[in-house]
Amino acid sequence: MQHAARLQHAAAAPQLMRPPTHQRALCATISAYVRSIEKGDDLAKNQLCHVKRASVRAKASAKDPRVFDHDNWDVHRSTTRHARHIAGLCRSQTVANLVRPLSYVMGVAVTVVAVEALRAAGCAPAFLPSLQVNSALFGLTSFALSLLLVFRTNASYERWDSARKMWGLVLNRSRDIVRQGLTHIPRDKPDLRAMLCRWVPAFSKALMCHLRRDKNLSQELQGVLLPAEVDEVMRAQHRPNYVLQVLAEIIRTGRVRATAAIRMEENLTSFEDCLGGCERILKTPIPLSYTRHTSRTMMIWLTLLPSALVSTCGLATIPLCGFVAFLLLGIEEIGVSIEEPFSILPLDAISGSVLTNVRELQATHDAAAGATGAADAAPLPLSASQLVTRYGVAAAEAQVRGMHVGVNGAAAAVAANGTAVRSTHAVWPQ
């Protein structure tokens, strides 16, 4: 008996060891591509190569400091972060961008200290005046400089945050419209379903290349669209807008229910809003007069700073001026850097996530429908009011009598005046 029980348990064990959902989806996707390749499908070959390249990019994105996971957050919150940040100061891009203005401020400080040292030693020419200024001037102007820098940084951060949220919305709406399309586009139109799953990731790729100068859209779309479709996109003047037009035609051709079509069109409207918002950020910077005034005020302030410190700090004026300049110039540099956020945000990773999620939805849709019994399920029965609306009063009564189900409820619904009436005996929901 025990031996038989062990055999029964061993036979049942493989059924319990199912791989995770994402692994099954990936296996299903690759298997489908392999079967297509065996049939000679060139697009499948390109897509399989794209899956391999996407896998490599996914591994690389895990090392991208801009894309966080749980391990990155642990490091980010670590108590050793201060020492790590100081140790990486020389590798900082912000510091590298400040080399020239810092050199200028330090050069002015060295000049002021040297002139005042010569005057104190009596070696300076008689025509050389003192370079010292009253430090009260800086107490009167420091608040204005602070306001300029704070407003500049806050305005730049708002632009960065808006771009981040819009790209997050692109990702979410891409998942949503594909899920809706796979659910509502009829099963007898598999070409339209596949077309939807190609063109939704194409929008994120087109938007990324539209916002970046160093991106090749034709290369990005390889393995995503058919070669002829790539050529059509490249011929368009406004490529993201063209992709949206194709998606709208897919929805129209799919002849989905009106309510589902409205929901899918709302997703396209969100895509259009994100496109317009990103273009607004890219093409309209913070008012240039404000940027120029902030830069001029700060450089004049830093130029005069050594003259205010030299009388009390002596040689220490040089490192002190360098330190203060690093703080102020660093804040201004960060504001300028994040003012145009699309070169900073990980758009490659976001658009890659769109493609990966769409492929997974496409691969797992049939499995999900089968799990709920919806794959081969009969259509839902019509309510009494729907029968009247579709067939008319007499035909609805005849259909109900032929079904031999819910006759009392349907008869109450198809009253003499043709108005649908609720009945407690009705089998179908109103």
Automatic annotation (TrEMBL):
Pfam families: Bestrophin_2. InterPro entries: YneE/VCCN1/2-like. The chain crosses the membrane at residues 101-121, 133-151, 300-329. GO terms for molecular function: chloride channel activity. Its main location: membrane. Keywords: Cell membrane, Ion transport, Membrane, Transmembrane, Transmembrane helix, Transport. The keyword Membrane applies. It is found in: Cell membrane. The keyword Transmembrane applies. GO terms for cellular component: plasma membrane. This is Uncharacterized protein. It comes from Monoraphidium neglectum.
